[in-house]
Amino acid sequence: MTLPETDEPQRDAAHPLPIILVLGFSSLCVALMQSLVIPIQLELPDLLGTSPSNASWVVTATLLGAAVAMPVAGRLADILGKKPVLVASALLLMIGSLVCALSGSLVPLLIGRVLQGLAMGYIPVAISFVREVAPPRMINTSIAAISAMMGVGGALGLPLAAWVADSFDWHALFWVSLGLAAAMTALSLLVLPHVHDAHQARLDWIGAVGLAIGLVAFLVGVSKGNDWGWTDGLTIGLIGGGLAVLVAWGFFEFGHDDPLVDLQTMSRRPVLMTNLAAVLIGFGMMAQAIVVPQLLEMPAITGYGLGQTVLQAGLWMAPGGLMMLAFAPVSSKLLSTVGGRYTLSLGAMVLSVGYILAIFLTGAPWQLLIATCIGSAGVGIGYAAMPALILQNVPPAEAGASVGLNGLMRSVGTTVAGAVMAVVMTSQTMDLGGREVPTLGAFQLCFIIGAVAAALGGALALLIYPWKKPAAAPQVSPQAVSTGV
Fold it and tell me: What is the C-alpha radius of gyration for the chain, rounded to an integer number of angstroms?
């Protein structure tokens, strides 16, 4: 396949700052959906009149919707233009939030949560949109800030959701998300400019369906494996079947004239290594998000638990989210001075250091806060570098799909992290009044695994080298041809 030039004319907006602020605010609203129902997760079976196993799908549904949406929304943005897809993603969040707010049983709530997950396609499209509306001096900082919203939303969403759930009926969570979605829809319509960034292509529907089937099967198997049993036939069938579908999908995409994801572009060394590092760094980020709140909320009677409420635990986690945002200008400076490869590696190594410190800083909430802030700084640096590296090494016509695939790789890492952490936490337990709870050693082992994963991601980042376009063929003048020179 002949690739278009990676350089495109810069289409600066007359007033880029309001545009970047809208993209950042909207990305934050979408990211908040990740932790929206965590404060009421234990109460959901009673609230919905269903089993704990069924109620757990309320969290999983959003994860699955987001995984499918990121590459598909990115590709649609490449074909139709980015503003229409951004507005459509905001509308999906509005509809999903309204369905959830009006629901009183499991099925409509799951439908709404899937729609909220599909809205996560907003973030990769927003990142790729930055290159078209921001002047060169603002691009790195803007990409860093919007990328950080994926982590900021998850961190800030927990205390916000806990406060709303404690103060009001649980439906209020979704009325709040509906208000945010309405605001981001209006702002996206009114503030974002119309940029002629559509490309002549058609959506590969077969590829989109194949990717969705493979991803959903694999991610469901991984996320539910600890509940169902890793040797259960359903778990093995879903994971194995999902991987088989994804392999078949890959062969189909390689042979397609207009694929959903151009795997030839994705196989270039800088893009491939960035995406592999994304899996490991996504793993590292999620390990922190899963383990630290549980340690904070563990009863003090265990001898190591810190006895915090859900709201208190969320407040202790919130500074980590703000740290990701605070490091956006630092990430921008690093991208401009040392480049994306070293910035990504540095971010992963800082995250690893945060985990190593957490092994020893478990005696008080403020100690975990220090470790979490260091790790979050690493996530902020790394998350800024990944889309910047992708955008530097793919053609403009594939920017949205490529950034979306990178977001998907992070999601795969977070899902695998959830499964691994669940296995570790249930493999080393102690009895607490007839209830099995993880030991301190289980928490520390999780920190070690997170540190190793992040360090491996940093090592992979050092293997990233910029893609060099083939040299253009020498131009021969008509005069030289006619004279035989």
Answer: 23
Contact status, residue 344 vs residue 274, Cβ threshold 8 Å:
yes
291-317: b or e for each residue (b if 16 or more CB lie within 10 Å)? bbbbbbbbeeebebbbebebbbbbbbb
Residue 437, classed as helix, strand or coil, is: strand
429 φ/ψ angles, rounded to the nearest 5 degrees? -130, 165
Residue 3: strand, helix, or coil? coil
DSSP string, 328-397: HHHHHHHHHHT-HHHHHHHHHHHHHHHHHHHHH--SSHHHHHHHHHHHHHHHHHHHHHHHHHHHHSS-GG
Query: Position of tokens 């960035």?
Result: 274
Which residue stretches of 192-326 are H helix?
A: 205-228, 233-254, 263-266, 269-297, 310-326
pLDDT tens string 214-229: 888 888 887 777 777 8
At 31 the three-state DSSP class reads helix
Contacts for 278 with CB less than 8 Å, ≥ 6 apart = 386, 406, 409, 410, 413, 457
Please give the Cα distance from 39 to 47 (Å, whole number).
Answer: 13
Range in 163-172, 265-274, 431-440, 469-478 with the lowest mean pLDDT? 469-478
DSSP state of 2: P
Helix axis angle for 399-427 and 365-392, nearest 10°, is 150
Please tell me the distance from the alpha carbon of residue 197 to that of residue 343, in angstroms, as a whole number. Answer: 29
Query: Could you give phi then psi for residue 50, rounded to 5 degrees?
Result: -140, 180
Q: Tell me the mean pLDDT in the region 364-373.
A: 88
Residue 168: partners with Cβ closer than 8 Å, 6 or more residues away:
none
Residue 98: CB partners within 8 Å, gap ≥ 6?
112, 174, 178
How far apart CA 38 and CA 314 sit, in angstroms, is: 10
CB 226 within 8 A of CB 112: no
Residue 317 phi, psi dihedral angles, 5° rounding: -80, -25
Contact between 186 and 64 under an 8 Å Cβ cutoff? The reply is: no
